[in-house]
């Protein structure tokens, strides 16, 4: 029998709670739902008004993985969706998760949460910029730390404040709150910074995606600033053998060049210790909690 629970007055059928999703640690679907329920206060503000894309992995990372932007079949009518016209579908809609009930509903599907750099109220107008640092073996997240520090210094020269989180996979994400700016302009600026980084540190930084160039270097992926692209959200689990989480980190941790890997059991203690290190990126009012920088 599928357990029925009530969350914020919504009845949810939570299925297969004992099913192991992350085999290396034996982490079950029930434990995943508990993780999202207990970290909802941190993750929900980062999902606010952002049309979601889901990477679904209901049978674990070794099973079928599929990426979807459309609302999954059976989406309850109380889950908010917004119009996000796409070139292939002018009537497209996507899910927005803003409350605990819809977060638990989505987590029950076993998903990674991916968001654009803009909110539904201002389509294709970015309020943040992202650099996805992806190491090419034998480079690791340790080399990504060096690149992140270079980016922080370079962005500061333009009056921009950078924050960081692990990708939850192999690398780091460097994020920057910006004054609302067309995604096209943000993309162009981010690309110029990545190109400048490769010129400054040619033995370490790469701005091109070409696989043959990647070994031993860190690809600074600037493309996720395009309006149609998305990035793994803060605090989302990733479809990995272990239940790793895209986790905000301090610059002191990055300066120590640590091998930064965090799992679901690490997040609550970090939130108790640090709070939400990415709080400056949250914009619930349209004005932002801290001043965001204009692009040059």
UniProtKB/TrEMBL annotation:
Keyword Transcription regulation: no
Domain of life: Bacteria
Spans traversing the lipid bilayer: none
EC number(s) recorded for this UniProt protein: 6.5.1.1
Broad enzyme group: ligase
Pfam family, one: LigD_Prim-Pol
GO molecular function: DNA ligase (ATP) activity
Record domain DNA ligase D polymerase: where: 28-277
InterPro entries xref list: LigD_pol_dom, MtLigD_Pol-like, NHEJ_LigD
Keywords: Ligase
PANTHER family per UniProt: BIFUNCTIONAL NON-HOMOLOGOUS END JOINING PROTEIN LIGD
Protein name, as recorded: Non-homologous end-joining DNA ligase
Organism listed in the record: Streptomyces maoxianensis
